[in-house]
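Subject: sequence -> structure tokens, single chain

Hey, anyone have a minute? Need the predicted structure for the following. Not urgent.
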Amino acid sequence: MLFAVVATLLFHEILSWPMLIVCLAIGSIVGTFASRLIAMTSMPEMVAIFNGLGGGASLLVGWAALFYSLELTVAVTVILSVLIGGVTFSGSVIAWGKLGEWLPSKSIIFLGQRWINGLLLISVLGCTVCFILDPSSQSIYLYIVIGLALTIGILAVLPIGGADMPVVISLLNSYSGIAACAAGFAINNVVLIVAGSLVGAAGFILTSIMCKAMNRSLVSVLFSGFGASKAAQKIDGEARAISVEDVYYVLEGASTVVIVPGYGMAVAQAQHVVRELGALLEDNGTEVSYAIHPVAGRMPGHMNVLLAEANVSYEQLIEMDVINPRMAAVDVAVVIGANDVVNPSARDDSDSPIYGMPIINVDEARIVLVLKRSLASGFAGVDNPLFFAPNTRMLFGDAKASISAVVNQFKT
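Reply:
Had a minute. Here:
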């Protein structure tokens, strides 16, 4: 989009070189500081807002095209760019709020919401037709479509619960690409068309993968409100705590260890000590692997990025479908900050809000070590019976500090 917009500005002599350089410098400085200062745990929010900025940029580029041409094809592509870009922008802002917990992460629904959404869609179609019949950069119908698009984006993401946010992130990424592609058609820029098409297609494929990983259709993600219709049940039981020294003895005698990372590992910035622990276990003759759930964390590939940053070998990252058949033969499963993706309720409890979502079957391992600060529920707001299972031991505390303590036990 950057190259396409710059090329367009220069080709049509809209901006001079000095002004263009000033704008590029300001954007580069803001982007550099944003990427440097953002915490790894806040990366999902940053991705969401990037998607939103892409959609907003496409909206403005499409709108600007009307000042140069009012042909029918331009009007059609402009209204698509404006509509999809507006939905992407406002939807991404809501996703950012949910991921950053500025807004409740749970599904937010209200009476008559689907009827309102239906009326909004009908209104959008009607105003779109009116605009195309009489296109103008100052058309009242264009302003109405922009307002409706922003409203639809908000109402589309509010009902989506926290557990579905990785799907929403990838879907909004696809939207931003489609909006850019439409903007490319509006300004007749091949680079923008191609780049937008690639992003749109890749985002849609990733969305399909995420839906498959959660055993949910895209329609159910967008319109059902994950967990809204069922109340999470409290679990009675007693969790068994374990000391750092006992964790060391358990791991020291294990032949196979599977490490299951989750969002808690990102919060604690524990990926480097996790890799160090894995290396020590391998030196001790233990087979170590990392079980990766497709929607672990709060954006697609979150755990892969963290472990890659810590130089964990890609060959050690095992997908959920591959590791599950082996789990019954695993000596120790170490769950680091994961919750919903290892919750047996998704498999065994038909009344659970997350029932049907594929999980990593860590409960089948001989011993399960769970590293968490508390027994609090995960992002989906559902309690986890794994914590109270007879083969589970809880190591409470900050994951980084806990694993560092275990590493020191191996070194002494």
